Amino acid sequence: MKDIQNQRDNRRINIKKVGVKDISYPISVLDRENRIQRTVAKVNMYVNLPHQFKGTHMSRFIEILNQFHGDINLCSFRRILDETKSKLQAEAAHLEIEFPFFLKKKSPTSHTNHLSEYLCKLHGSLNQNEDLTLEIAVPISPPAPLQTECGLPESLGHWGVAKICVRFRHFIWMEELIEMVEAITSHDLRWAAVKDRIPENSLTVEKFAKDLADKLSGHPNISWCSITVENLSQGFSTFATIEWPEKDLNINRNNIH
């Protein structure tokens, strides 16, 4: 049987991305309190296709994934990328893993425990160099309405979301990044709910983005960061994005106020 994928192609056209996507797969992630948290991820795997090949072996992506079954985590990212690049004879390999991460938290009003969900994404690339980014979406709730004698306040819904994407020099707990974001958003929203303090309409996407950039840019283990804050409005959304490369950290830190 002919191996069509490995046959020569003389059209000299590279394909930038070819692979498989939306694979549902169990993974384990590091948990600061419990050591390991098991969750289910959506996985995308792809490579570039050099111009001399007609196609790629799609089944090999799944074979590689199954090879690391039970050992898919932050530490194994480089080994999975190495294996993908080698087996598919590619110049560059990419791996995206999107998963929910859960934190046990105590409600400030009822003092009961509940689980908060955060959507996380790891994106790794291996070409001549290795690149790894971590993205976390942190929900932002609106200010809590004042309690009345009529009973419980209405459901709060969400004010919006802060998406933090980082490259790091050294390991950072996901819980630490979440706490850094919520130290800004929860603090401002708590004060906005207090009468005669900060009006709610002063809580803008620009303010949140600048405050988060000021806080995160001072972290010694973060070398690059992109921050997008989105406010969910009726019929449309507003957003603000701040991004800085490593060499401009100090410049941006001085200019964001």
Q: What features would you highlight for this structure?
A:
Urate Oxidase, alpha+beta, disordered C terminus, 5 helices, disordered N terminus, 257 residues, 2 domains, 23% helix, 8 strands, single chain, globular, eight-stranded antiparallel beta sheet
Secondary structure blueprint with pairings:
Blueprint: E1 15-31, E2 35-49, H1 58-67, H2 77-87, E3 93-106, E4 113-126, E5 130-140, E6 160-168, H3 174-192, H4 205-216, E7 222-232, E8 237-244, H5 249-255
Antiparallel strand pairs: 1-2, 2-3, 3-4, 4-5, 5-6, 6-7, 7-8
How would you portray this structure in words?
Strands 1-2-3-4-5-6-7-8 form an eight-stranded antiparallel β-sheet. The protein folds into two domains: 8-98, Urate Oxidase, CATH 3.10.270.10; 129-257, Urate Oxidase (Roll), CATH 3.10.270. Helix 1 (58-67) runs antiparallel to helix 2 and helix 3 crosses helix 4 (205-216). The protein contains five helices and eight strands, in the order E-E-H-H-E-E-E-E-H-H-E-E-H. The chain has helices spanning 58-67, 77-87, 174-192, 205-216, 249-255; strands at 15-31, 35-49, 93-106, 113-126, 130-140, 160-168, 222-232, 237-244. It is 23% helix and 39% strand. Mean pLDDT is 79; it is low at 1-5, 7-13 and 246-257. With 257 residues, the protein is an alpha+beta fold.
